[in-house]
Amino acid sequence: MLDQKSNDDVAVIGIGSAGTRIVSLLSRKPLLVDRYAYVSCDAEDFSPVDSKDAIHIQSPIDQKLTPSLVRGLALSYHGRIRDAIGGSKVVFVVAGLGGATGSGLAPVVASIAQDCGATTVGVAVMPFEFEKKMKFYAGVSLRRLRTASRGVVVVDNDTLMHSSPDESTLADLYDSANKAAVKALGSLLASSTEGSKSVGLNKFLGAVLRDGYSILGVSSNGGGEKAEDALAGAVVSLGRIANAKEASRAVVSLNGDSSLSAQEVGLAVGRFGSLIDNQAVDVEYGVDCSGSSQLQVSVLASGFGATKYDDYDPLSKILGGRVLDDDMDTSLLGGLEGLPSCG
Ligand SMILES: Nc1nc2c(ncn2[C@@H]2O[C@H](COP(=O)(O)OP(=O)(O)OP(=O)(O)O)[C@@H](O)[C@H]2O)c(=O)[nH]1
Ligand SMILES: [Mg+2]
Q1: Could you say which ligand is closest to the alpha carbon of residue 129?
Q2: pLDDT tops 90 at residue 329
Q3: CB proximity list for 297: less than 8 A, separation 6 or greater
Q4: Are residues 240 and 300 in the same domain?
Q5: Is residue 205 part of a domain?
Q6: Ligand 1 lined by 173 (C-beta under 6 Å)
Q7: End-to-end CA separation in angstroms for the chain
Q8: Regarding predicted confidence, which is higher, 236 or 336?
Q9: How far, in Å, CA of 62 to CA of 234, rounded?
Q10: Which of 144, 158, 179, 248 has its Cβ near the most Cβ atoms within 10 Å?
Q11: Least confident of 80-94, 136-150, 160-174, 235-249
Q12: How far apart are the CA of 96 and the centre of ligand 1, in A?
């Protein structure tokens, strides 16, 4: 449990393009967060953020980046990453997994944060189903992020994409996914305001800091829809990633407008156990009635040993729990001549 909150308790770090975008949107909300930082190889990622919070890993333009190459390039930036985290009690490391930067660095930044003594939580945004090529890096990185953190929250991009017109561009898809992700993560980290009952950091961490994975399920409905129906939608989204019945704890957050009645909230939260067919699940909740008439229900459920992402990393499946000595392999540019000679 956290002590009394003091300055600089909570830091949120966005890694790579998706991580930077999502964290920069979070930074505009009134949250229980004291510090934001951003790490990426791509200078364009930093356009929406304050340059003093940005750590730009210089990378060659003539070389295709891979996670291990990014880890090599980042070796000389560990001190700056440590400075950005230093003193924080809780660090959230947010990244989209599947590309080179987020996949390569999220586990590294998480282990730096743990070494600094912070309670570290990874937040992994997983690729859309159609991004088949991204699955392998995403699966390997998720496993490493789990090892390097006290807890991991998984958010699936397909869950975040509710409905999109056929003519949507990839940028439109990302924008709409980011809005849903920021609403869901924001409600877990929100400070209390008028018309809201925030979840609170202790309850959030109480759900996340446990064995296995936490999954963020999200469902959004048009005005007038019952909270219970939206909750059922969020439970369906959990079921696409893991066996929802395995959840040992859950935090349900409801974001809507003033038409969201206490009775409706009570009914919805009370039904969660029967929806997942596990009445023993321990449920906390938060409500924010200051938003729009479009109700979004987010469910953070935790305690999942197996997820669909286990299949993204076939090697680990074949090894059946045994681990290769692949402790975050790192590539270096150039030949061996750069290394000190012996003898
Ligand atoms: N929700 C959301 N997902 C994104 C966004 N941008 C990329 N992604 C997803 O995040 C994962 C990683 O993509 P990027 O963040 O672009 O990759 P990166 O970490 O910047 O890595 P490189 O650009 O390859 O060095 C993929 O699964 C993408 O689908 C975004 O703005 N929002
Ligand atoms: Mg990128």
Answers
A1: 1
A2: no
A3: 218, 219, 220, 221, 227, 230, 231, 233, 234, 252, 253, 254, 255, 268
A4: yes
A5: yes
A6: no
A7: 53
A8: 236
A9: 43
A10: 144
A11: 160-174
A12: 5
51 vs 37, 46, 106, 301, CA distance in Å? 10, 7, 20, 35
Q: Is the CB of 159 under 6 A from ligand 1?
A: no
Closest residue by Cα to atom 16, ligand 1, is: 17
CB of 225 sitting under 6 A from ligand 1 = no
Check whether residue 138 and residue 192 sit in a common domain.
Answer: no
Q: Which two tokens stand for residue 194?
A: 């008028």
Count Cβ atoms within 10 A of the Cβ of residue 51 and give its class: 0-12 exposed, 13-18 middle, 19 or more buried: exposed
- Tell me how crowded residue 154 is: count the other CB atoms within 10 A of its CB: 24
Q: If pLDDT is split at 50, 70 and 90, which confidence band does 160 have?
A: confident
Query: Are residue 127 and residue 215 in the same domain, yes or no?
Result: no
Instruction: Note whether 19 and 67 are same-domain residues.
Output: yes
Nearest to 95 by CA among 62, 34, 138, 58: 138
- Whether the full predicted model's pTM is greater than 0.85, yes or no, is yes
Which ligand lies nearest to the CA atom of residue 99 in the structure? Answer: 1
Same domain (yes/no): 203, 107: no
For atom 32 of ligand 1, the residue with the nearest CA is 174
Q: Would residue 136 count as lying in a domain? A: yes
Residue of the CA atom closest to atom 8 of ligand 1: 18
269 lines ligand 1 (CB under 6 A): no
Q: What pLDDT digit, counting tens, does each position of 199-238 carry?
A: 999 999 999 998 899 999 998 875 556 788 889 999 999 9
Any atom of ligand 1 within 6 Å of the Cβ of 67:
no
Q: What's the 215 CA to ligand 2 centre distance in angstroms? A: 24
* pLDDT tens figures, 24-57: 999 999 899 999 999 999 999 999 999 999 999 9
Q: Closest-lying ligand to the alpha carbon of 156?
A: 1
Cα of 65 from ligand 2 centre, angstroms = 10
Residue 66 belongs to domain with CATH number: 3.40.50.1440
Choice from 13, 17, 46, 55 to test ligand 1 binding pocket (greatest atom count within 8 A of CB): 17
138 CA distance to ligand 1 centroid (A)?
A: 10
